[in-house]
Every structure is written in structure tokens, then in C-alpha cells.
Amino acid sequence: MPEIVQQRPARPQPLREQALPRLRALTAALTTAGLTATLEQPEGSEVYVRVINPAATDYRDRITCQHHIIDGYALWFVHSWGEPISPACDIAAAVADISAMLQPRPGAHRAQP
Questions:
Q1: Residue range 54-76, pLDDT digits in tens
Q2: Which residue from 46, 51, 58, 107 has the highest number of Cβ atoms inside 10 Å of its Cβ?
Q3: What does the DSSP assignment read for the chain?
């Protein structure tokens, strides 16, 4: 009788390893769009992009990259308050959303995350 060899399923990469290249690309694109963006990699904590509108420094956000349960656990960029931005594969859509969100509006004051 032939020996049956079962292969173990490939171990998924930890979220940090999956998110890092996408957050690097987002950081570069946000910088190109004129925002101040810094990739933060605290040891033992979630990786994120700190983004600030240099023309209005009270307008800032902390962008993470997380699995989106509604989208089959695909990676999405997410605002600091938990609102999904766009799939992590769509950098242009993320930059457009983040840039619009960080624009001052008359009479509005934005809390700092």
C-alpha cells in the first residue's frame, strides 16, 4: 500500500510581515502627495503610518493595515478610529481618502489621535 504523505498547509505570515510592505508603499505615496508621513514600527506593537497635513498640523491620523472581515480577510488600510479606508492593494484610493480627510474644513476642529 502506498504511503500517504500529508503536507501541512503553509503557515500564514504574521500580520506585521504582511502589512509592512503595504504601509511602506503608502508612506511613500502620501509623502509624494505632499503630506508628512512616517512609518512607525514600535517593537512588539502594531506597525502604522503617522500622517500629518503640514499646512494644518492639527490634522493628523494614524493609519494601520488590518484584515477586513467583510472582504474575506483581505488587507485594508484603516483610520485610527477604525473606519476602513481602502483595500491595501489600492494605494491611490487610500491616498485620495486620507488627503481629503486631512483637509481643514471651515468651523471644524479635528481631535488629535
A1: 999 999 999 999 988 777 778 99
A2: 51
A3: -PPP-PPPPPPPPPHHHHHHHHHHHHHHHHHHTT-EEEEE--TTS--EEEEE-TTSTT-EEEEEEEEEGGGTTEEEEE-TTS-EEEETT-HHHHHHHHHHHTS--TT--PPP-
22 found inside a domain? yes
User: Of all residues in the chain, what percent carry a pLDDT higher than 70?
Assistant: 82
Q: Which domain holds residue 93?
A: 15-101
78 in a structural domain: yes
Q: Which three cell numbers stand for residue 35?
A: 503630506
Q: Which three cell numbers stand for residue 24?
A: 511602506
Predicted TM-score (pTM) of this structure: 0.80
Phi/psi at 85 (5° precision): -100, -60
Which residue in this structure is represented by grid cell 502620501? 30
